[in-house]
Amino acid sequence: MAQKPRILVVTPEVSYLPEEMGESSHYSAKAGGLADVSAALVSALFDFNCDVHVALPDYRSIFNGFTTKTHNRELAKIRKSLDEERIHLAADRAFYYLDNIYSGYSDKDLKVSLAFQREVINNIIPRVEPDIIHCNDWMTGLIPAMARQIGIPCLFTIHNIHTLTSTMAEIEDRGIDAASFWKWLFFKKKPQNYEESRDWNRVDFLTSGVFAAHYVNTVSPTFLTEIVENRHPFVESCIQNELSNKYHAECATGILNAPDPEFNPAVDQMIRYNYGPKNHRRLKAKNKAYLQKILDLEMDGDAVLFFWPSRLDPVQKGCQLLAQIMYDIVSQYWEADLQIVSVASGEYQKCFHDIVRFHGLGQRIAVCGFSEGLSHQAFAASDFLFMPSSFEPCGLPQMVGGIYGTLPIVHDTGGLHDTIRQLDHQNNRGNGFLFNTHDVNGFKWAIDRAMEFHFFDPAIKENQLNRIMIESVLEFNHSRCAEEYINLYEKMLKRPFIV
Q1: pLDDT of residue 162 exceeding 70
Q2: Which residue has the higher pLDDT, 36 or 389?
Q3: Closest C-alpha among 154, 117, 160 to residue 31
Q4: Coil vs helix vs strand at 246
């Protein structure tokens, strides 16, 4: 950017920040993928020498490296240093002593959201005086309306289709002057005027963010198209309509996320043996042997190893499909010593355990709760990974898989469609295996294609994996992602808009 505009990224969670931004390396508050994406985007923008600032809730109990017992003077010193630099911590008792960012109770999460947004609107934005505000998900959904009212271009990024609602009366009781920007909020019922709507007409946070923002993006182009075309029944009509309006007004786009740079087998400190495209064959086998040993699987270097990397959520992630055929695929490929490792938490974990116990498959299938270190090791050890999501706003494991030479088996939807192409070894194309129909037969078809590849001549497999690993590093990185956001910021600053 020629004029180096000041960007304020507003996010409820982040997993790390660049050390050069102050005492920021101490701050870590993570609930999901948004934390990693926010961290990587901020770091990449900083590397591009952007004037980037970040607004975050001051989760004292989650504050990485500190606890509530830490001396108050030390905490105050750190927070003062953060505020004087580029990290702006919103302070409120609503989230000081939380153990998790989201409680799972809508009333508590709403209270946290309102406290955070109050501080951003009343204190942080006036202090930073940004040229662009970049908001993320429902917990920041009121800020675009305020930005619209005062004439600051605002980008609203949708990572997850989740929202909460509140009345203007409740919003104002929390210290936010909703009356000053109420006309830019999205109400569940069409409002007649401010006084008539204040006490009963509920404001939808996510839809308000879409409605009021000058520009909106989802975290994959295809997922945006799917919503506009109304292909997902779980997306509420209000969000679908407002995203469609933005899309047809050329004010919406999709920008793919990218995995964190630490996901690289050449430098990954969480895996037993580091490797790259040129030596993956030998060292992936050593990583596989190490994983088999620590998980009490059969020690077999020739075993074909499948990895489940995503939370065990049957609504989105498709784990019920694997549950239905888990015994069948192990039996069908018994002579190939097929093994499965799941490193994930969620409601289907018990179901996986029950299948393993009932069929006595403890030496072929390992079911583990999520552990970041174990997950990294599984990427490094596995041949293939499962990702049969029914829908996917973006997805990161399928990108990580390619970087580690672990080929993804995915349902052709959303971000999976944007990142995975059918493997065609004869033409040196593709990086995984896709299936179109989201059912057991479609999933099983793709697994069979993966096994056909597994039985190829080792030299053919080695050449294809070498190509895929190199291409994945070049394609799935945060420099590319940050450049797209920078181009979007520039477009927003050049585009005239109506207040």
Answers
A1: yes
A2: 389
A3: 160
A4: helix
Adjacency order of strands within the sheet including 433-435: 365-368, 339-343, 305-308, 384-387, 407-411, 433-435
Per-residue pLDDT for 268 more than 60? yes
168 and 198 Cβ atoms separated by less than 8 Å: yes
Amino acid 76: pLDDT: 47
Which H or E element spans position 410? strand 407-411
What values do phi and psi take at 128, rounded to 5? -80, -35
- What are 10's strand-pairing partners? 55, 135
DSSP 136-180: ESGGGTTHHHHHHHHT--EEEEESS----EEEHHHHHHTT--GGG
Q: pTM here?
A: 0.89
Which residues face 90 on adjacent strands? 57
Q: In what order do the strands lie in the sheet with 87-90?
A: 87-90, 51-57, 6-10, 132-136, 154-158, 215-218, 252-254
Distance CA 72, CA 400 (A): 40
| DSSP for residue 29 | B
Structure tokens at 235: 């997306």
Higher per-residue pLDDT: 276 or 38:
276
- For residue 93, the model assigns a pLDDT of 87
Distance CA 391, CA 284 (A): 30
Q: Looking at 23-37, 383-397, 401-415, which range is the least confident one? A: 23-37
- Averaged over 468-475, what is the pLDDT? 96
What SS3 state is found at 262? coil
- Token readout for 395 is 């997805």
- pLDDT range class, residue 3, cuts 50, 70, 90: low
First to last CA, the chain: 24
Pairing of strands 165-167, 202-204: antiparallel
- What is the spatial distance between Cα 112 and Cα 103, in angstroms, rounded to a whole number? 10
Euclidean distance between CA atoms 222 and 410, whole angstroms: 15
C-alpha 316/C-alpha 318 separation (Å) is 6
